[in-house]
Design brief:
By secondary structure, the chain is mostly helical. Helices cover 80% and strands 0% of the residues. Helix 1 runs antiparallel to helix 3, helix 3 packs antiparallel against helix 4 and helix 4 packs antiparallel against helix 5.
Length: 128
């Protein structure tokens, strides 16, 4: 097998695994929240979209760091679990802002988004 094909297959393996892990995280995350973000987003609720986007980015950043730094699928999966738990912890700590999301208040959603992304950045730089 050519080096180019090996590189492409490695890319595909990590990319598909990362997408599956992101999907699994989102499935768990929307069950932890007291509302269904996907339904709210379909109803054009910007607050739900902002909040969920922050959790998504906050999850993806450490996944990128895990792939880049470890080059190991098992390590990436371990970090996905840790990262998912960290994002759920952020939501749990900020749960008092959750009632404002469903009616579409964006200020609490922006704050929740920022905290999710900040946690993801800190999580990512702690991976070694």
């Amino acid at each position: 097998m050519s080096p180019n094909m090996q590189a492409f297959l490695a890319f595909l393996q990590y990319f598909v695994a990362a997408l599956l892990l992101l999907g699994a995280f989102l499935a768990v995350y929307v069950r932890v929240t007291p509302y269904n973000e996907f339904e709210l987003i379909q109803q054009d609720n910007a607050a739900a979209a902002i909040s969920l986007a922050g959790a998504c980015i906050g999850f993806a950043l450490p996944m990128a760091a895990a792939i880049y730094l470890t080059h190991d699928l098992l390590e990436m999966i371990k970090w996905a679990v840790i990262t998912g738990a960290a994002q759920i912890a952020v939501f749990t700590l900020l749960r008092r802002f959750a009632p404002a999301i469903e009616p579409g208040h964006t200020a609490p959603a922006i704050f929740m988004c920022a905290m999710s992304v900040a946690t993801g950045v800190l999580n990512a730089v702690c991976i070694s």
